[in-house]
Amino acid sequence: MLTDASNLELEVVGSDFDRVMMQRCLELARRALGMTSPNPLVGAVIVKDGKIIGEGFHPRAGEPHAEVFALRDAGKRSHGATAYVSLEPCNHYGRTPPCSEALINAGVARVVVGMMDPNPLVAGGGIARLRDAGIEVLVGVEEAACRKLNEGFIHRMLYQRPLGILKYAMTLDGKIATTTGNSAWVTNQESRQVVHQLRVACDAVVVGGNTVRQDNPYLTSHQVGVHNPVRVVMSRTLDLPVNARLWQITEAPTLVLTETGANPDFQAMLRNQGVEVVELPLLSPDAAMVYFYERGFCNVLWECGGTLAASAIASGAIQKILAFIAPKIIGGDHAPTPVGNLGLTSMNEALTLENIDTRLIGSDLLIEGYLPIKHT
């Protein structure tokens, strides 16, 4: 879940035209999928006399924000216009000047905001500044869609951790591979394409040593000219294949997380091939997420096996689950399952997902939901 209030129904805000324009903002924002962390994805549109006169989106951290590009596109015609922006304009000096001032200086008459910024440096300040300048401000248009697009950024701001997403594919009888370890392919081609697109939106995709040894994956988006996440291998001992595909970094970078002093010769081999190796005092999912936060990540996709998945869930590293279920049965008393031992012994201890969404992808079923937030 994104916040404690995320189960509440969001009221419909704005006119049909306002909602269409905000949907256009979201389309623009998605052009930078996977590129903006630690910043959010934001799109902006400038409208005058019912027509779009300027558009923009935030391309990456350190570059101007969406409003600035949209105002540049509109030029002097911005005076008296309506600005639509999917996230509250910033009101502080960071790497770039505040967007609230840019909108005021451009002379816009009205600003329509998709959602307030959870960043404590903003948190209503941008909206207040616009209203103080005499600009009409409407907040909450297409809010649910705006929050969904930036759920990783929101989680990062609220909890000082990236959003952890566990994705797995299993058969109807709950297996992710046969008893021999063969897992190609559990789901159909359409489901695999959905996963490839999911990777585009993430900063990192994480696997453990067993996945490298058993599957020898690529972990790329399998698309030309789009973002590939950092491919992360977690291994305490570095007992890994020398010729794994993940050590080939021409398409996407690879990061290996291990413990201090583990297998120096193998570390040297990896570094010689351009693979980044980071030693942590104690390797765990939680330690990895702390490191990912410090690195500026918003969305971390876990595509690991059952043992690491269970550890990640138990440690609170996972907030979101995407389970792809194929209409296949393979059986096997010892065939691997998506999540290993969580130490639960009764059904009332089961982790029940919230905010469930289900959809068919060809003959496969995708169940998407959020683990309950652990209150400390």
Task: Give me the number of helical elements.
Answer: 11
The amount of helix comes to: 25-40%
Structural class: alpha/beta
Kindly report how far apart the N and C termini lie.
16 Å
* Average predicted confidence as pLDDT: 91
Number of strands: 14
- The coarse overall form would be globular
Strand order of the largest sheet: 10-9-8-7-11-6-12-14-13
> Rg to the nearest angstrom?
22 Å
Portion in beta strands: 15-25%
Instruction: Outline the low-pLDDT stretches.
Output: 1-10
Largest sheet: 9 strands, mixed
What series of H and E elements makes up the topology? Answer: HEEHEHEHEHHEHEHEEHEHEHEEE
What do you see in this structure?
There is one protein chain. By secondary structure, this protein is α/β, with parallel strands linked by helices. It contains 11 helices and 14 strands. It has helices at 16-29, 66-74, 99-106, 125-132, 143-149, 151-159, 189-200, 209-215, 264-272, 285-294, 306-314, and strands at 43-48, 51-57, 82-85, 110-113, 136-139, 163-171, 204-208, 230-234, 254-259, 276-280, 299-302, 320-326, 354-361, 364-370. The protein has a 9-stranded mixed beta sheet, sandwiched between helices. Strand 4 (110-113), helix 4 and strand 5 form a beta-alpha-beta unit. The two termini are 16 Å apart. Mean pLDDT is 91; it is low at 1-10.
Outline the secondary-structure elements.
Elements lengths: L15 H14 L13 E6 L2 E7 L8 H9 L7 E4 L13 H8 L3 E4 L11 H8 L3 E4 L3 H7 L1 H9 L3 E9 L17 H12 L3 E5 H7 L14 E5 L19 E6 L4 H9 L3 E5 L4 H10 L4 E4 L3 H9 L5 E7 L27 E8 L2 E7 L6
Parallel strand pairs: 3-4, 4-5, 6-11, 6-12, 7-8, 7-11, 8-9, 9-10
Antiparallel strand pairs: 1-2, 1-3, 12-14, 13-14
Helix pairs in contact: 3-4
